[in-house]
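thought: fold this chain, then report.
action: predict
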Amino acid sequence: MALREFGFPWLPVSLVLALAGFVDAFKRDRTTFWFLLTVMIADLAYAVSYEIAEDKDAYYLPTFISIAIAAALGIRWMIQWAVSKRAPVGKFSVAATTVVLVICATIIAANWPFNNRRQYFIAHDYVENLLSTIAPNGLLLTQDWQVVSPMLYAQEIERLRPDVKVVDINLLRRSWYFDYLKHAYPGLIERSRDKIDGFVENLKDWERDPGVFARSPSLTQRISAAFLEMIRSIVTNESGMAPVYMTNDLLSFDSVNGELTRWLNQKYQLVPQGLVFNLADGQGFHDSPDVRLQIHGLADGTLRFGKGDPVNIKVLPVYTNMLINRGRYLALFDQHERAIVAFEQALALNPDLALARQGLAESTAKARKQ
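observation:
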């Protein structure tokens, strides 16, 4: 991605000029040289270790600006060198103009397929697909920012399905988030007020002095227990009002939300519906309509994404994983014809999915025997 920002890797004109600019600055203006170099080193040291993939590119911006400034210094050096050689003005002007135009053209050509958003409906489709399976007044639990961010825009700006309550599990660990929840979903807060107030009290103590909690296993256990009790209360109370759903990321038994994930799996049957799981009671088959997912540009080649793009590493896996989960759930209850459709949809998005191929083969064989 970093190389692409400055043109095609096989034609690094701007990077060559930037290198020339750094050399010239070192000879003529050490302050500028060390300033640009320090900015780049400090920025790269931070950005390389930054863990949130969808934000990472933005943190390289100081490095990009430093390289752009160095490239400008390189162009200045080229002009001054040509003048010192007494090159013909006409020929020199044409050469300099050509170099600048080539730089601009290569940068635009290299980035246009990735940055053209004319047919970019990924976020729109993601929200539509999520909401299409959520019942009126339903609750959606998630810790996926790719869900929370576009959903917030859709609900607050476009006023799309404001009845759906979307709760970010990770943001529940910030006291300010409860002010937002009180404004957005006052009924939810009121129905679980006791448990919420108890956790928020512990949370504010932690925010005032996290070190005290880090040094005290009993305090850590207390706030963790209060957090889990609050989530249990919210899920239990809201399920009495409307269905409760969760996104695929909450299936991860990590050190942060492991207890919550364990409780959800023990308490409810996780029924895959579209891009979410419905938290259903009982262990019998819960039928639901097969969802027609909107996937404009996701994997049809009309849009291009870098390897580290959040669409590739966060969004696309949600589609494929949930389609596989849907297929496996249907196959478990001998709904093999419908399972085949789900597995085929997953493979259409990513032909290399071993679980989808295996599920498709098994359901196809069993469907023939039915």
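thought: worth noting. The chain has a mean pLDDT of 88.
final: tokens above.
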